């Protein structure tokens, strides 16, 4: 299986690369600058300059793009749209490292995590832009996409336990009542989805057991 990880030098991207490499998968890092991930193959190119031919022959493309500054937040939508355009009509699956703010907190799917009064104000704009990117993605019937939301508490340096619970559109809590997952366990879930490909054109979510 051939996998490309876009933005492979980032925290989530590098852990996804490492997990895939450790499983013996054929992994290519797509990076703007020098490759700092565990991948042996590299495409050194800005995401926005990628072409359809760059991603030809991959079974799965994993989009680990993330940005946090006010002026670059709209790039969550524009970067994803660009990847969708160059993968349009292809068999290549697109897995998107998503956000938790757009997860629903009621069965009617009318209220989202980011709407809550206790949602941190400093993440509101980020969650809104990531939510917009997901809404745009839902309209793409020409791409075999899967959007993977982490738990509410997404821990960069959390422990790798190897265990997680797979959820859907709604915020899931574990037996302790927590919505938490480490980047390392999230990476396991992403690579599992890359291998299995069970959720085409769906949003799924993951939480630690």
In short:
The chain has 209 residues and is α/β, with parallel strands linked by helices. The chain has helices spanning 11-22, 75-87, 121-138, 183-196, and strands spanning 2-6, 26-31, 41-44, 60-63, 93-97, 144-149, 153-155, 164-167, 180-182, 202-208. The chain has an eight-stranded mixed sheet with strand order 3-2-1-4-5-6-10-8, sandwiched between helices. The protein has a two-stranded parallel ribbon with strand order 7-9.
Distance between the termini: 28 Å
Shape: globular
Biggest sheet strand order reads 3-2-1-4-5-6-10-8
List SSEs in N-to-C order: EHEEEHEHEEEEHE
Mean pLDDT: 96
Overall radius of gyration: 16 Å
Note down, in words, how this protein is organized.
There is one protein chain. It contains 4 helices and 10 strands; from the N terminus they run E-H-E-E-E-H-E-H-E-E-E-E-H-E. The chain is of the alpha/beta class and 209 residues long. The strands form 2 sheets. The chain has an 8-stranded mixed beta sheet with strand order 3-2-1-4-5-6-10-8, sandwiched between helices. A two-stranded parallel sheet has the order 7-9. Helix 1 packs across helix 4 (183-196) and helix 2 runs parallel beside helix 3. The two termini are 28 Å apart. The relative contact order is 0.16. The model has no long low-confidence stretch (mean pLDDT 96).
